[in-house]
Amino acid sequence: MAGRPAEPEVIWARPERTGRGPRPAYTRADIAAAAVRIADERGIDAVSMRHVAAELGCGTMSLYNYVPRKEDLYELMVDVVSAEYDLTAEPSGDWRADLMALTHQTRALMHRHPWLPRLMSPVYGFSPNALRYLEHCLACLDGLDATYGTKMELVAMVNGMVTTYVANELATAERSRSLPWSEQQEQAARIGYLSREIATGKYPRMAASFAEDAGPIDLDAFFDRALGRVLDSFAR
Fold first, then answer.
1. 74 and 127 inside one domain
2. 176, 186 in Cβ contact below 8 A?
C-alpha cells in the first residue's frame, strides 16, 4: 500500500506532509471527521477506507498517503472526538468533584458517539487530545496525596468503569430497539416472572432485597454511587 510504513510508526510522529510537492487535498482532520460521521450514522463496522474515500469524494488508494493503516484511522477518530471535552475550567481543588464532572463528560461523549467504547484501548491513549485530557485529569488530582503512578491508575480505573457502564447502556438500548414489542411490555413480563419466582420462598435474600427497595433503579444515581466508591477507595 502506498505510504504504508515498513516499521512500527506512531501516526502522530508522522508528518502530515513533506515540504515538497503540491499541497495535499485533505488533512488528517478532514479524514477523521469523515470517518466519525460514518461511524455516528452507521456504526464502527461501516468505517472503511473505501467508505471514507466515498464520503470525501476521492480515490480509496489516495487515502493511504495520509493514513497508512486502518488502526491509524481509528486513532485519529478517537482523538478528534476527544477534542469535545470542555477542559477550560481550572481545577477547583476538590479532586473528587472535578473527576466526577469529567466522568459525566465522558459518559455523554460516548452516548454521542456510541462506537467509542469499542475503541477505548491503551493503543489510542496518547494522541494530542488524549494527552491534553490526561494532563487535565492529573491537574484535578493535585490535591490527592498519592504518587503519579497511583493517580494514573485511578484515571484508568475510572475510565474503565465508565466505558463498561456505557457499553452496557448502549447494548441494552440496542436490544430494546430490536424487540417486536415495547420496552415497557418486556419489563412487565420480566418483573412478573421474577415476582412469581421470589414468591416461591426459594430465594429469601432476594426477597429481602426487593422488600428493601422494589425499584425502579435510578441509573444516573447508581452511576454516581458506583463511581463514588471507586474514588473513595483512593481517598486517604
1. no
2. yes
Structural domain for 50, as ranges: 11-82
Q: What is the pLDDT of residues 83-114, one digit of tens each?
A: 999 999 999 999 999 999 999 999 999 999 99
Q: The domain that contains 196 carries what CATH number?
A: 1.10.357.10
* Closest alpha carbon to 110 in 175, 180, 40, 56: 40
User: CA-to-CA distance for 203 and 16, rounded, in angstroms?
Assistant: 63
Same domain assignment for residues 147 and 211: yes
Residues 6+ apart with CB under 8 A from 17: 23, 24
Residue 1 lies in a domain: no
**Average pLDDT over the chain, rounded to whole?**
89
Do the beta carbons of residue 34 and residue 52 sit within 8 Å? yes
Burial of 34 (0-12, 13-18, 19+ CB in 10 A): buried
CB-count exposure of residue 218 (10 Å: 0-12, 13-18, 19+): exposed
The three cell numbers of residue 79 are 482523538
CA 191-196-200 angle, 5° bins: 145
Q: What is the CATH number of the domain that holds 57?
A: 1.10.10.60
63 and 155 assigned to the same domain: no
41-62 pLDDT, tens digit per residue, is 999 999 999 999 999 998 889 8
Find, among 120, 117, 122, the residue nearest to 166 by Cα: 117
